[in-house]
């Protein structure tokens, strides 16, 4: 496992993640040509929707080899609507490369994915990209890493310009200027131009100060002038793994500069699987196979592929495993290496690797698969709730069965999508944003050949109790062995936050408690008149059973009690308030600010880059429907925005 690196490429949209991935695949010899996002020829953006829009929508796993080290790389989306894709991938990675645009600097989604990586305790490397563009500022990004991200950068490479044209990359520790051929390989090492020498020496001294503060041994070596590059690299790796510092590389992926040094940094500084800190439960059986399902990929004509990270042992074709979510046994029909949308069958995959398992139907993202049924399952992933919905409208009633099957298939790939039905029985698609809905519907049409469209997007409101209430409930069910009678008392109490907590005060077996919690939470999501309930604590008391209940009966009973309790509870309608981040040319900032205020928005922050401004505001979601067109008109197509749920607030209308 020492020669394996599992890492992801994460960033704000249009920072150059996919282009960087393409250069990595080309330089490692995995691809014979360099794919181009604008031409729709990239390996990892294989879906038609990705190639049409020029953005990454679903994560893609690929593999390659650099310096005798196997790299498992996952290219992730940068748009906020697809943040769940990033979250599920980070769950299984040992490291991450954060790509930052040298022109735009650290944007809102950069901060979001950085915080996601921090929460998962994932070591990171930074690659400052697009330094060949007009307006690029390497030093501004370095300052933002210190300020916005609050991390200590160790600068490994810096750009070298001649007449404002990027001519090469300077290696700080090797003290050389690297020049590249058209294929992106460093072919010449030259002396650093005289005008850069003082700056390079200053950065070198700053790096040494940072590293000697971590390791006293290096301090002694520096004082005696006997430090070695190997010793420096070991301390950098220690600092990265402990998340004490962040190595910074730079270049231009599209312009073919700086990527080989990034690859060297990935191998040198990111941890191998046996060096990383995993959220994997210890198992007494050291030989047990443990795999975590972090992605579902449906392959037309082939079936469902469960993409797993293997944490222990090995998994091979024909192996029988336990799904620790439900205790069911599954048999692996085949195991294959993953390369975006292509697969190569292998006999087995070992601990530390990422592979695709075929032939397992009853599997979900977040499932733990193991050869030992007695170990505890790994922690599942929790995603934000959808905030926008649209009615799915098939061309005819004849298409409804095919539409339902297609929706189930696509929803199994994306945990942030939810399907529910309104009072008329119409299917509602609940998603994270308008782009999310549009992509989902286009996939239904293109991949399943369905004539379906989405109705006008609407805000997905919530309801919240404003006062406490109680209810006594009796449930009866005739069974062959007698009358099943369940009695319970249920209280609902409002709370300040938007979470829903379930408290069971009666002493019960764990399986019955779990069934009662599932029943309550399923009823919470349906709510009253199909509005999900938020912001309350639900307490179950005095639960009695005439017979030991079937788990499904227990779920049904507690859901019925909750529905009756809601009918006697005073509820208020809650609307989603979004954190809106707008990137706009400086000359249109005033127009954007005025428009946000007219939408009952509150300005949180305005920050300036070289030629653009970033506006952060809180705005009711209902005011932002159709904002893509509004912003395009106001900025003549030069602006962009993202939004994420900030909180729920009482709707006064």
What does this structure look like?
- The protein contains 15 helices and 36 strands.
- The chain is an alpha+beta fold.
- An eight-stranded antiparallel sheet has the order 16-15-21-12-13-20-17-18, with no helix packed on it.
Radius of gyration: 27 Å
Number of helices: 15
- Contiguous low-pLDDT stretches (5 residues minimum) are none
Question: What's the β-strand tally?
Answer: 36
Average predicted local confidence, pLDDT: 91
Strand percentage? 25-35%
Instruction: Using the alpha-carbon principal axes, give the shape.
Output: globular
The spatial strand order of the largest sheet comes to: 16-15-21-12-13-20-17-18
- End-to-end distance: 59 Å
Instruction: Please give the largest β-sheet.
Output: 8 strands, antiparallel
Percent range of helical residues:
25-40%
By secondary-structure content and strand pairing, the structural class works out as: alpha+beta
Features:
653 residues; alpha+beta; 7-stranded mixed β-sheet; 27% helix; globular
Summarize the SSE layout with pairings.
Layout: E1 4-11, H1 17-27, H2 48-53, E2 60-66, E3 69-75, H3 83-90, E4 95-101, H4 108-119, E5 124-129, H5 138-147, E6 153-155, E7 157-162, E8 165-171, E9 176-180, E10 186-190, H6 194-212, H7 216-223, H8 229-241, E11 246-250, H9 259-269, E12 290-299, E13 303-312, E14 314-316, E15 320-323, E16 329-331, E17 334-339, E18 342-346, E19 348-350, E20 354-358, E21 368-370, E22 388-394, H10 400-411, E23 418-421, E24 427-431, H11 434-448, E25 452-454, E26 458-459, E27 462-465, E28 469-479, E29 482-494, E30 500-504, H12 510-526, E31 532-533, E32 536-545, H13 551-567, E33 571-585, H14 589-598, E34 602-608, E35 612-620, H15 627-635, E36 640-650
Parallel strand pairs: 1-3, 1-4, 4-5, 5-11, 6-11, 27-31, 30-32
Antiparallel strand pairs: 2-3, 7-8, 8-9, 9-10, 12-13, 12-21, 13-20, 14-19, 15-16, 15-21, 17-18, 17-20, 22-24, 22-25, 22-26, 23-24, 27-33, 28-29, 29-32, 33-35, 33-36, 34-35
